[in-house]
Amino acid sequence: MSITTTVPERPVYMPDSPLDFGAPLVPGQILLDEIVAPRDPWSGVVEPGDVLTIVDVGGNQSADCLVFNGDDTAERYSVPDTLTWQHNAYVDTGTVLRSNRGRAMMTVIGNEIDRQDTLGGACGKESNTLRYGHHTMYQHGCRENFLNEARKYGMDARDLVSNLNWFMNVPVDQDGVLGIVDGISAPGKRVALRADLRALVLISNCPQMNNPCNDFNCTPLRMIVTRPGPRR
């Protein structure tokens, strides 16, 4: 399935400082600049060479992420391929996000926290009830956000795979046990991804309200797509 988009003309944005809050990590023509409300999903196509900057507006707010080939959604992000190629359990600057066909989908070209997670998976109604009790069953999770957004592109539950968790802290202990603990991000921290193919990106602004890692407070994300170019 091929995804088509139209890109409006936007001015070139050049931050005065790399610490400019909410600025794209890679300057250039702004193609998209959107706020994702707390607990909401988001999706968009990033063309080859363009850069998606994800901003953790409030701090320690997980941006659960799936990536598909915008020209063929049967090709999608693969955790095992990504980790096998880089010989590292964490995602950081320079990590190439690989597909289930072993191809480069997106490359992390900027990262402002110590490490990014791709092991912890996505929360959902079922996992929430196991972790936090049946009183949480009415709360939707990232899985439900992904399902709702995927339907826009003709996909369903069979198309959902293990995901990335930008800004979430998931340490791996010596015995292999994973933890979801207090975050290592902060307000305004960013990660930047360059598209290596037409990348359809799905984001769930994690609606998890039962874990102290985000101080029980869901906050917005900001999605900025830029086309790198010289200063005008």
UniProtKB/TrEMBL annotation:
InterPro entries: DUF1989 (IPR018959), UAAP2 (IPR017791). It comes from the Bacteria. Residues 35-196 form the DUF1989 domain. This is DUF1989 domain-containing protein. It comes from Propionibacterium cyclohexanicum.
